[in-house]
Design goal:
Blueprint: H1 3-25, H2 27-55, H3 64-81, H4 88-115, H5 121-139, H6 144-167
Length: about 170
């Protein structure tokens, strides 16, 4: 990670912690903000992936994968931004599925790193934590305030994970 990337990671982590604290302080409106944060994040990721495809990946082997990934994430971003008017239980299920998928991917990446002899403990812990967050979303599916707090704690954990990643020395 370059010095500029580390600085960006620190700034983004601070913004994530500030957003989590704000969500915890106002859980009544936190649901709408969670939908906005998820939708905007997916939309930005999708657009960045599409820009990467059109600038570099179309010339690479397997570059079409980046096009498909960008289109899918952009569509999910648009879909998530429009979920504010449907019953909250669906968005909570959406959040639980998102956390469980992310946790499963992190666990599988950690196990792959372990089989190749690389560092895996931090990725494994992050994956397990995401799975626990998904389970908590399912358990407290009827209580929106609790889910807002669970999402906020997940944001703080992800921000701390970014801090740790930025503090690591490059090998």
């Amino acid at each position: 990670m370059t010095r500029v990337q580390k600085i960006k990671s620190f700034i983004f982590s601070i913004l994530m912690i500030a957003a989590a604290i704000y969500l915890m302080s106002d859980p009544e409106h936190g649901y709408s903000y969670i939908v906005l944060i998820l939708g905007t994040g997916l939309l930005i990721y999708g657009i960045n992936t599409l820009i990467y495809f059109f600038t570099m990946a179309r010339h690479m082997l397997g570059g079409k994968y980046m096009l498909y990934k960008g289109v899918i994430f952009t569509d999910f971003g648009y879909l998530t931004c429009t979920l504010n008017n449907i019953p909250r239980i669906y968005v909570i299920l959406y959040l639980a599925i998102l956390h469980s998928f992310t946790g499963l991917v992190e666990i599988l990446r950690a196990l792959e790193n372990r089989s190749h002899g690389g560092a895996f403990k931090l990725k494994l812990a992050h994956g397990i934590y995401d799975m626990i967050l998904a389970a908590c979303c399912i358990i407290f599916i009827k209580e929106t305030h609790t889910v807002v707090i669970i999402y906020s704690v997940g944001l703080i954990y992800s921000a701390l994970f970014r801090f740790v990643g930025a503090l690591r020395k490059n090998v």
